[in-house]
Amino acid sequence: MLLIHCPYCEEDRSELEFRWAGEAHIARPENMAGITDEEFAEFFFLRNNEKGLTYERWRHIHGCGRFFNAARDTVTDKFLMTYKAGLPKQPVPGVSATEKAVETCEQTEGDAR
Amino acid sequence: MAELATRTLPLAGAHGGSAGVRLTPAAPAERLSLRARAEDVAALSQSLGLDLPTKPKTSASASGRTALWLGPDEWLVIAEGAGSSSSDLKAACASSGVLHSAVDVSHRNTAILVEGPGSAAAINAGCPQDLSLKSFPVGACTRTIFGKVEIVLLRTGEESFRVEVWRSFSDYAFGLLAEGARDAVL
């Protein structure tokens, strides 16, 4: 079982108390009515789905009920750090956020391998 | 036709437990879901007659009222022994004069008292919390999960807990606690 540190409860709690709430730090366009359909789709539907370090929103739904942000490694599933909602994207010590280790299905499993 | 409407608790008549754990449905109580901003906590504390806790996982008790910290701006206030539909707590909050949200949830919740040397083990049958006295001392409280239902857990003594659960889930919670109580003495 994963233990997740809730920045509001200031404690490691079981993953059973938490819910995932999508990618973090997605700014809602200020002129929602003015943007094109493509720009809206980019904001609303398209996510980076990065391999490695990702920033996500989580909610301590069966605890304090708060949303917070977490930096998580999608390869190891490890939570690298968590911080309160509203804070800017926090750098994770020892991990570069610009890491580009893009492996596509074609490269690893398809015929092109 | 009946002259009198009697109130039946959702867990009325339920009994369970084992050699090491006693399970009892708690008496009716008045409950308030209270939400307020940090700057209004002092005024609300004064009108409720207790200090609303501001540290995670803590509770405060005074003159039959208990306030449980659920979140940074959320408390569950329980007034024991207030079985009638009196609204003392809401009135007390209203007299503070500060902006807040107070919702009476007396009938939404019911409570199960878990007592005895195996009480922590019985709760841990479905709850991932660390219930050692070091990390969950007397007076500690939290909203957490018990099996498939959400509960609010309050440690009232070294070997006694109060499990607050929504009334429609209370049969499930009581049943799972009874299972846990049986396992706790093995």
Can you identify the CATH class of chain A? Alpha Beta
| Spatial gap, N to C terminus of chain B | 50 Å
Please give the count of helices of chain B.
Answer: 4
Number of helices of chain A: 2
Spell out the helices and strands of chain B N to C: EEEHEEEHEEHEEEH
Largest sheet of chain B: 6 strands, antiparallel
What is the overall shape of chain B?
A: globular
Average pLDDT figure of chain B: 92
- Compute the number of structural domains of chain A: 1
Strand content of chain B: 35-45%
Strand order, biggest sheet of chain A?
3-4-5-6
Rounded average pLDDT of chain A: 86
Helix content of chain B: 10-25%
CATH classification class of chain B: Alpha Beta
InterPro entries (chain B): SoxG, SoxG_het, TrmE/GcvT-like
Protein name (chain B): Sarcosine oxidase subunit gamma family protein
Organism (chain A): Pseudorhizobium endolithicum
InterPro entries (chain A): SoxD, SoxD_sf
Provide the fold topology.
The complex is a heterodimer of chains A (113) and B (186).
Chain A: E1 3-6, E2 11-14, E3 19-23, H1 37-44, E4 53-59, E5 67-73, E6 79-84, H2 105-108
Antiparallel strand pairs in A: 1-2, 3-4, 4-5, 5-6
Chain B: E1 16-17, E2 22-25, E3 29-36, H1 41-48, E4 59-62, E5 65-71, E6 74-80, H2 88-94, E7 100-104, E8 109-115, H3 119-124, E9 141-146, E10 149-157, E11 160-166, H4 170-184
Antiparallel strand pairs in B: 1-2, 2-8, 3-6, 3-7, 4-5, 5-6, 8-11, 9-10, 10-11
Protein name (chain B): Sarcosine oxidase subunit gamma family protein
Organism (chain B): Pseudorhizobium endolithicum
InterPro entries (chain B): SoxG, SoxG_het, TrmE/GcvT-like
